[in-house]
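Design a sequence for this backbone.
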C-alpha cells in the first residue's frame, strides 16, 4: 500500500487559475456576493430534522431500526445540507456580518449534535489558504491515521463510519492555525449541549438516535461521504482538486462544484455553476467524479486508494 503522500513542489493550483480566469472572463467578478436566503434554507432543514426526530421519538426506542432507516434515506441528506450551510457561513457568504454568519452556523449545527461549526470555520479557512500544507491543512490525515486505516476495504469503511472522530484529532497537529477553542466555540458547545438535552427530554432517546445517525451518515458510511474523496483525494497528482456535477448537487447546495469554489471562494453556492458555464475552457479539461455512489464504492474497494492519496506541498514529519 502507499506509505507516503504525493508531494508537489508547485503552489496549489487555484490562485493561478483564478487570475487566468479573471483575465479571460472579468465578468465573473459579478458573481461575488452573498445569499441571505441560505439562512432560510437552514431554518427549514433544521425544522424538518426536529420534526422527524420528534416522530421517531414517539415511536420509542424499540423502533431504533426505523430511526436508522430514516436517517440513512432522509436525515443524511438533511444534515449534509446543513454542513454546506455552515461552510457558506464560514466564508461569510450568507450575511456581511461575521457575527450573523457565526449565529447561522451555530444554529445550523444543532441537529448535528456535536459542536463542530466554529472549529470547522477556523480550520477550513486555513485549508483554503494553505492547501496541502500538513502543518496547516486539517483536511489531511496524519501519518498515524493513514497507517492505521491502510488500504484495506474494512479499514476505509470504518474510517468513513467514524469520520467525525478522526477529524477531532487533527487540530492538535496544526502548528500554523489558531486554536479552535474560543468564545464562539464555547457558545456553540453550550448551545449543542442544551439542544441535545432538550431532544431527549421532549422526544426521547430514539429521537437522539435518529439525529446522531443522520449526522454520521451525512459525512461517513453513505454515498454522501464520497464528497470528501471527490474534493481532494486523487490517484492522479496532476489534479489535486475534483468536482462533481451530478444531480445530488440539488440536495447538497452545489457543494460538488469544488474546483469552482476553491477558485472563487467568495461566490455563494447558488452561483457556482455559473463559473463553469462562463469559463468552460478552464474546467472541461479537468476530470470530474461521474457519481458520488460510484466513487464511494471505488474508494472503499480499490486498494490503490488510501488516506495517503493526497497532494502535499512538502513532505510532513511523522
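Sequence:
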Amino acid at each position: 500500500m502507499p506509505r507516503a503522500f504525493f508531494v508537489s513542489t508547485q503552489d496549489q493550483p487555484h490562485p493561478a487559475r483564478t487570475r487566468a480566469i479573471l483575465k479571460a472572463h472579468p465578468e465573473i467578478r459579478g458573481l461575488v456576493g452573498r445569499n441571505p436566503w441560505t439562512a432560510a434554507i437552514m431554518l427549514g432543514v433544521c425544522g424538518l430534522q426536529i420534526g422527524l426526530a420528534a416522530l421517531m421519538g414517539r415511536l420509542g426506542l424499540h423502533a431504533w431500526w426505523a430511526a436508522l432507516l430514516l436517517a440513512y434515506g432522509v436525515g443524511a441528506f438533511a444534515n449534509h445540507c446543513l454542513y454546506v450551510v455552515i461552510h457558506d457561513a464560514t466564508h461569510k457568504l450568507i450575511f456581511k456580518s461575521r457575527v450573523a454568519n457565526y449565529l447561522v452556523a451555530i444554529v445550523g449545527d444543532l441537529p448535528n449534535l456535536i459542536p463542530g461549526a466554529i472549529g470547522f470555520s477556523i480550520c477550513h479557512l486555513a485549508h483554503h489558504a494553505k492547501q496541502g500544507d500538513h502543518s496547516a491543512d486539517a483536511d489531511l490525515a496524519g501519518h498515524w491515521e493513514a497507517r492505521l486505516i491502510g488500504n484495506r476495504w474494512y479499514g476505509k469503511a470504518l474510517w468513513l463510519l467514524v469520520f467525525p472522530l478522526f477529524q477531532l484529532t487533527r487540530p492538535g497537529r496544526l502548528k500554523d492555525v489558531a486554536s479552535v477553542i474560543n468564545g464562539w466555540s464555547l457558545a456553540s458547545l453550550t448551545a449543542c449541549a442544551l439542544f441535545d438535552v432538550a431532544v431527549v427530554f421532549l422526544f426521547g432517546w430514539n429521537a437522539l438516535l435518529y439525529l446522531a445517525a443522520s449526522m454520521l451518515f451525512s459525512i461517513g458510511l453513505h454515498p454522501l461521504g464520497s464528497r470528501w474523496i471527490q474534493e481532494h483525494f486523487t490517484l492522479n497528482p496532476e489534479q489535486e482538486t475534483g468536482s462533481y456535477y451530478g444531480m445530488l448537487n440539488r440536495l447538497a447546495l452545489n457543494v460538488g462544484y469544488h474546483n469552482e469554489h476553491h477558485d472563487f471562494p467568495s461566490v455563494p453556492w447558488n452561483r457556482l455553476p455559473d463559473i463553469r458555464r462562463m469559463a468552460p475552457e478552464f474546467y472541461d479539461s479537468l476530470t470530474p467524479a461521474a457519481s458520488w455512489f460510484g466513487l464511494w464504492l471505488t474508494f472503499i474497494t480499490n486498494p490503490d486508494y488510501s488516506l495517503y492519496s493526497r497532494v502535499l506541498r512538502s513532505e510532513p514529519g511523522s
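The chain is about 55% helix and 0% strand.
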